[in-house]
Design goal:
- The protein has two helices and eight strands, in the order E-E-H-E-E-E-H-E-E-E.
- It is mostly beta strands.
Length: 172
Amino acid sequence: VMTGIGPALKYYFNRKKRSGYDLYLSLPIRAAVSGDWDDELTVDYRGIQSKLILNYENYDFLPDKKLKFSAAVSVGYIDSDLADYYYGVDAAYATTERGQYSAEGGYAGAGLSVDVTYHVVDRFSIRLYSNIDILSGTAFEDSPLVQDDVNFSAGIALIYSLIQSGTRVERD
C-alpha cells in the first residue's frame, strides 16, 4: 500500500464568500511511503513528490448551490528515489522487451482535471470527473514502463454519507 504524507501551501486569489468561486494555487509536498504486512508491518520511505496546482472551484452554477464545478491545472516534480521506485527496472526484472532502467528525478508531467458534483439530497451526491496527464518531457519518459505520453481517465462516483455531525453549517 502506497500513500503520501505532508503539508500543502495554499494561496487564494479569490474566495467563494466574496464572489461564489475559489481561485487558488496549491503546493502539496508529499513524502511517499509504502507499507506491507507479511510477518510484521513494515513501512518504507520511497521519496518526495510535489505539484504546483492552479485550482478553480465554483459553487454558484445553480441558485440552490447543489452543483459544484472544479477544474485544475498542475505541473509536477518527483525526486529520483520515488521516480526510480515507480519507473525504474532493476537488472533482476529486465527482459529483452523491458531493459534495465534507472529513473531520474525532476519534471513529472502536467495535468488537467475537471470535476462536477451534484448534491441530489442532503446525504447523496453524484460526482463526474476526468483527468488528463501529459508525461511528455518528464525526467522518466524513457522508462520502458511508460507506455503513453498522454493518459486520460474519467469516472462517476455515487456518494452517500452514512454518518453526519449533529451540528451542521449551511452549504455556501
